[in-house]
Amino acid sequence: MHTRLFIVSVALWAGIASAQTPKRNTSTPGGRNPSLGLGIILGEPTGFTGKVWMDNNRAIDFGVAYSFGDYVLIYADYLFQWPGAFRLKSGEKFFEQLVPYVGVGAAAIIATSGPAVTRTYWGTRSASVGAGVRIPLGIEWLPGDPPLGVFLELAPGIGFIPLTYVFFQGGIGARYYF
Q1: DSSP 3-state assignment of 115?
Q2: pTM of the model
Q3: Which regions of the chain does DSSP assign to beta strands (E)?
Q4: Radius of gyration of the chain (CA)
C-alpha cells in the first residue's frame, strides 16, 4: 500500500513540475521540432539506430547492432552538435546542411560466438558480456525536405568490464525523422 502511494505521489509531483516548466525554443536543424529519427547503420557493427533531438545543439542517439558472427552491441550516446559550422559566404546550401558532432556514451557488448570473440574483446575464454564507454565523432547531412539524416560516424572506445580493452566502431547510416 505504501509503495503505491509513493508511486502516485511521485507521478503527481512530476506532472505538476512539468506543467510549470516554461516552454523553450526547441527547433532543430532542418526545421524539426523535437523529433525522433529511426534508421540503419552499416559498418562495424551493422544494425538499427535512433536519435532524439533535445534542442538545436544536443541529441541522444541509441542503437542495437550486430557484428556478424561475433557480438551484439547495445549503445546510447549524448551528442553535442554544431549546426551551421560549415556556412560559406557563397551560400552553398549543401555545406550549411552538414552538422558535425561529438559525444560520449555507454556500450554493452554481448558475445555471440566462441572463444575467438572473447579473446578479441576480453582476453579470456569465459566472458560473454562486456561494458565500456564510447566517444562518437561524426557528421550528419540534414537536407530538411525530405526529413532524412545521412551520417558518417567513427566511435573509438574503451571497455572496463570484465577487463580493460580498446575497441573501434564506425559506419555510415541514415535515419528518417518523424
Answers
A1: helix
A2: 0.73
A3: 36-44, 46-53, 58-67, 71-81, 98-111, 129-134, 137-141, 148-161, 165-177
A4: 20
- pLDDT, one tens digit per residue, over 66-83 is 987 678 899 999 999 998
Q: Which domain holds residue 147?
A: 29-177
pLDDT for the residue 76: 96
Residues 6 or more apart whose Cβ sits within 8 Å of residue 71? 45, 109, 110, 111, 112, 113, 117, 121
CA separation for the pair 76, 151 (Å, rounded)? 16
What CATH number does residue 134 fall under? 2.40.160.20
Q: Residue 109: exposed, middle, or buried by beta-carbon count in 10 A (0-12, 13-18, 19+)? A: buried
> How many domains, the chain?
1
- What mean pLDDT do residues 127-149 have? 89
Q: How many whole angstroms separate alpha carbon 98 and alpha carbon 12? A: 42
Q: CA separation (Å) from 168 to 19, 93, 117, 133, 171?
A: 43, 32, 15, 11, 11
Query: Nine-digit cell at 166?
Result: 580498446
Asked, for residue 124, whether it belongs to a domain, the answer is yes
pLDDT tens digits along 26-38: 445 555 554 899 9
Report the C-alpha gap between 74 and 161 in whole angstroms: 15
